[in-house]
Amino acid sequence: MAKILVVDDAQFVRVRYRKLLGGEGHEVVEAGDGQEALQMYEKEDPDLVLMDITMPVMDGIEALEKLRERDSEARIVMSSAMGQERMVIKAIQSGARDFIVKPFEPETILEAVDKHTG
């Protein structure tokens, strides 16, 4: 199973990911913003990062760009609310492997994890 870094400023979202992914046998580590994500990535060396775009301190796009500078092979799937098409395009151009629109169904998350860790 995979080690997955979940990055979201909303604790309830991180809990939802942890329950879903942990229930499938994945190891889940968490960060509450982009800055913390950079630290956790270095410490934990995850197989995949699931990261929100809109966060305080450092947003997901900036964190994505910094992670890709450090590790060009980093597998990062971004997520954000509907209506942020410009941000989706920026995330993909910055190296995101995929994009999930919130609110998401559990199957959507599991499919993305399988696709990018398998």
List keywords for this structure.
Rossmann fold; single chain; 5 strands
Write the layout of secondary structure elements.
Blueprint lengths: L2 E5 L3 H13 L3 E5 L2 H11 L3 E5 L7 H11 L5 E6 L3 H9 L4 E5 L3 H12 L1
Parallel strand pairs: 1-2, 1-3, 3-4, 4-5
Helix pairs in contact: 2-3
What is the gist of this entry?
By secondary structure, this protein is of the alpha/beta class. The chain has 5 helices and 5 strands.
Give an overview of the whole structure.
- This protein has 118 residues and is of the alpha/beta class.
- The chain has helices spanning 11-23, 34-44, 60-70, 85-93, 106-117, and strands at 3-7, 27-31, 48-52, 76-81, 98-102.
- It has one domain: Rossmann fold (3-Layer(aba) Sandwich), CATH 3.40.50.
- The chain has 5 helices and 5 strands, in the order E-H-E-H-E-H-E-H-E-H.
- A 5-stranded parallel sheet has the order 2-1-3-4-5, sandwiched between helices.
- Helix 2 packs parallel to helix 3.
- The model has no long low-confidence stretch (mean pLDDT 93).
